[in-house]
Amino acid sequence: MTCQIKEVQKSMIEYRKGNLLNVTSGVIAHGVNCQGVMGSGVAKAIREKYPHVYQAYAKDVKSWKEGFGSTKGQLGRVQFISSVYTEGTRIFNEAPLVIANCFTQNEFGTLRRQVDYEAVAQCFATLNTRSKLYGQLNIPKIGAGLGGGDWNVIESIIKSEYKDDVIVWEL
Asked: What is the pTM of this model?
């Protein structure tokens, strides 16, 4: 009996210089906390450029807290929001760009590492199945800035969980 080794496809990570928010198609995935605050970093920039993305995120966090009494259970979830917003409707079929809020940290702050590596893995597993519907995945160095995570660890998680190409944007 011959044993065959199946090669697992891994993602290729491409690094580009430029502003992530200048991306106009595909998916922008970024990390958010479970507290309903998009007060700094990439999350704040997204909040300012796409206020409806923040409103949907804050509403989701509030509903989660009211329903479950805690926000920590959101870790690892991904919320997909169209960049196009019309009268309360999220239009995915017509939107060239989708924002993916990845719940990668429970709290926020810079005194200690906030990013949860297991949550990052869960988010990228979800992105692996869902984001491909919307096109190219674009990310910042998710969790490695204000989240305090080690990019080498996060990059290896991405390569393990996401099976397609990823563009990492750096200013």
From this structure: 0.87
